[in-house]
Design a protein that fits this description.
60% helix, mainly alpha, single chain
Length: 199
């Protein structure tokens, strides 16, 4: 009697694996490669695991597959024209699938991703740049709309002022300006004499 096959799948295993590899790298355990990075005289060395670098970067995969047991137990790879901070961020990304960088470094991270042929980092940088561009375009659109509404609201009061001024001019045309042209409230001498006679 055959039993049906069932799938045993862990959702947390990939994350746990990455976390464990990251901890091993930070502690320097089981590391079998040293990456020496130099940029305009600034130099640093990073220890890592060949398997992690090869799995995340086609550049490193090609380097490691070509080597034949050189440099003893730990391989040394030299990288020029890569900034130390950028490579540190790259390593953090490949070991954790996330890294926090300043907005102005996103382009540099994209460049290092392309140089080291790291597809995941490239896609992540492209997505972030797209979001940043959309955000800037939205801000420009909102700014443009607010400018238009300010110009319209600034134009409306002047129209109101002009119409009020025109209405005031019409009212003044109905009312004479010269007090001599206005009908007198005082009675003329003839009218006051007539009133006295009646009394």
């Amino acid at each position: 009697m055959e039993s049906n096959a069932v799938l045993l799948e862990s959702k947390s295993s990939p994350i746990n694996l990455l976390n464990e590899m990251h901890q091993l790298r930070l502690l320097g355990h089981l590391c079998d490669v040293t990456v020496s990075v130099e940029y305009y005289g600034v130099r640093a060395e990073f220890v890592a695991h060949k398997a992690v670098l090869a799995a995340t970067s086609k550049f490193f995969k090609e380097v490691f597959l070509k080597e034949k047991g050189m440099d003893g137990p730990r391989t040394i790879v030299f990288l020029n024209e890569v900034q130390v901070a950028d490579f540190a961020s790259f390593l953090e990304f490949v070991y954790t699938a996330r890294v926090e960088v300043e907005e102005d470094r996103v382009q540099r991270m994209l460049e290092i991703a392309e140089k080291l042929k790291c597809l995941d980092l490239s896609e992540t940088c492209f997505q972030l740049k797209k979001q940043m561009l959309e955000s800037v375009l939205l801000e420009l659109q909102n700014f443009s709309e607010s400018q238009n509404s300010e110009e319209e609201s600034a134009a409306q009061p002047s129209v109101l002022l002009e119409s009020k001024a025109a209405a005031a001019a019409d009212d003044q045309a109905d009312c004479p300006l010269d007090p001599q042209d206005a009908p007198a409230d005082r009675a003329s001498p003839e009218t006051s004499a007539t009133k006295l006679k009646e009394k």
